[in-house]
Amino acid sequence: MSDSISTLPRGSVPCSNQAKTLVVGWDTVLVLAIDTSTPAVTAGVVALEGGLVETRGERVTVDPRAHGELITPHALAAAEAAGVTLKDLDAIVAGVGPGPFTGLRAGMATAAALGHALGIPVYPVCSLDALAADVPPGDNAFLVLTDARRREVYWAAYDAAGQRTDGPHVQRPADLETEVKVAAGDGALLYADALGVRPVEPRFPSPAGLVKVARSALLGKEPPAPLTPLYLRRPDAAEPAAPKRVTAP
Amino acid sequence: MARIIMGIESSCDETGVGLVRLHDDGTVELLADEVASSVEQHARFGGVVPEVASRAHLEAMVPTTSRAFSAAGLSMSDVDAIAVTAGPGLAGALLVGVSAAKAYATALDVPLYGVNHLAGHIAVDTLQHGPLPTPCLALLVSGGHTQLLRVDDIASSFTELGSTVDDAAGEAYDKVARVLGLPYPGGPPIDKAAKNGNPTAIAFPRGMAGPRDAAFDFSFSGLKTAVARWVEGAARRGEEIPVDDVAASFQEAVADVLTAKAVRAAKEQGIDTMVISGGVAANSRLKELAAERCAAAGIELRVPRPRLCTDNGAMIAALGAHVVAAKLPTTPLDFSANPALPVNVVSL
Lengths: 249, 348
Ligand SMILES: [Zn+2]
Known about the structure:
Bound molecules: zinc ion
Number of helices of chain A: 7
Order of helices and strands of chain B: EEEHHEHEHHEEEHHHHEHEHH
Low-confidence stretches of chain A: 1-7, 16-20
Mean pLDDT of chain B: 96
Order of helices and strands of chain A: HEEEHEHEHEEEEHHEH
Strand content of chain B: 15-25%
Number of strands of chain A: 10
Number of helices of chain B: 12
Largest interface: A-B, 46 and 48 residues
Low-confidence stretches of chain B: none
Strand content of chain A: 25-35%
Shape of chain B: globular
Structural class of chain A: alpha/beta
Mean pLDDT of chain A: 89
Shape of chain A: globular
Structural class of chain B: alpha/beta
Oligomer: heterodimer
Helix content of chain B: 40-55%
Radius of gyration of chain B: 20 Å
């Protein structure tokens, strides 16, 4: 176990089954999708049949402080709504951000532990890509923006076909230089005026969107990539100066 | 039938996963105790950086769990219940362990117990010394806590008799180590330097020891400042700092006030068993002085070995086992971690 960990990129979350490839011998691949990179606590059970992506059950609560409380109950409820148990799942797809750290980790820790205990692979996807996957195909390039707090946005740019062309980044909206005028994600709604963009749906990543991004890896029986959170910011920490004097010099 | 309890700890800078076996007679046997520490990542900051700790917990959770099962020679399907630290501790750090514990319990379809970290520090002693007679007095001393507790039931009844009004004892060690140019964390290097020093060389103050002070509360902020003042004075006079003597005198002041108050509390409460736990319980002078004073007062002293005293998953598994044995209710799956969980709430 420890041997395989040392080969992972710094900051990734080792899963005991990273080396395990999804065994696709079934007609339908049943996937649990989890994302906690935005205020939405999102879990869904999605069936992948050939190229088709079908949501069988989902639970979403928009509450930026409830990720740790709700993500596992939501995963259970989504499975129940789909008429399956967690033991029926073939794989997990987890949004790895970028997103506010604490909430993001709740979903990733949940996905990693579920994958570990169920003995199934966990596929990481960029949460902004999952949002982009739900933007209806059109003629124009677009942006995806989510709220990074501290008056900043997480963002990435996509071409008309939905392929990521730039990002993900974290920046103040005013510093974001772009010609693109259409943007999805709750960050687009928050900063539409400052950015001069027209907000479009969706606001948050959906289970189907998450699975769409991982579709080719799932169907191609590829081993999952390391589960590495996209923090984009360093931890706030300052090295201390010399100890403060307690007596007058 | 004996049951296997898994414990998950992530309240500060150690990711701990422990496995214990709860026997039918109520005794609890240690099977695995795996810890991944991020202490080295915090060293240059002179204290735990919460975000650095949280990131390390996420990376370490699954591998530490795997190591615990390999060490115990068990498979995950052997687990009968899971306990996890619900608080107190760092909010972001707690959330990683709580999230993972909920997922493990759900996937394995076993009951989950959110338990108190402070109570875990005391419950861990039963892994080494067997069932704990109650009532007993517990002195919990670490980088984050300094508390005197009365324990009437290891699974459900802890009462705080006193606590620090400012710094934790371990925090004072870290700060004094910095003043003396010793590394972080300060406990081990100060203990080592003190062995070569004279504990009566400098008369440092004993905090909260006056007749009008709360009998069982502690204060270490004044002591820390007194050490810094003394060191600055010596430096100003161009004297070489006698690091060993300062360390020994500081350590004596800490051990003196901790043990004096603990023994007084035990006597006043009519209690004849004392447990000292937490990272600072590894301190050689504290153990020595406590043994001396407990013996004189006719109190049986129990100090878990150092490996069990610092934060780990085994202490949470041990407490979980006692909670399971007491047939207390399980914790609902949607519970939140509580960074300020009071010690009288042993399980949620
Ligand atoms: Zn502790």
